[in-house]
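note to self — DONT lose this again. spent like an hour looking for the file last time. sequence + predicted structure for the chain T wanted, 212 res
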Amino acid sequence: MKTKTLKRDKVNVITFGCSKNIVDSENIITQLRANDYEVAHDTGTNDLSVEAVDDANVVIVNTCGFIDLAKEESVNTILEQAGRKTEGEIDKLYVTGCLSERYKDDLQTEIPEVDAYFGTMELPFLLEKFKIDYQHELLGERVTSTPMHYPYLKISEGCNRTCSFCAIPLMRGKHISRPIDELIKEARNLAKRGVKEIMLIAQELTYYGLDL
């Protein structure tokens, strides 16, 4: 069993699913690091940008609720981390993302070892667990976990289409475009850090700006 100390928490963020989820995790990491938390990011890949995560005592699982394999991996990881919490290997376990948004009630019933579940738009509430406030000005200073030559740039959130085969609107809400000046600021900051290519991403790229 891990011995508790007075050291500041170290956080491991585990991400499943699409590039939008990666950006969401990067935003979580940015906010935590701005408040002097040591944070590692586990994307389940062999990418050199992934940091060591062995000694983290707080785990955040950012889940996917859309792709079947990623949903299964998300649930299995929550169960694995819940077991580690029961054994005293970690102190806190939080779950966020699409799976948590869509199945929060079921997850709370089936896996009560998790300290708190958060939906896709509840980052400020997640940060409250660390006793810090969400800082909007950090949006343009996002930490990236992709290879150094390219980052993702999420230009909007949600989707207005009601396709019968897709649950994205249920998990991400209606389409909301980010202001163009905010995107330009973030792109410029990324360019200053030496990136060569910026990948624009969204649930519905072709809807960008129609709501502005």
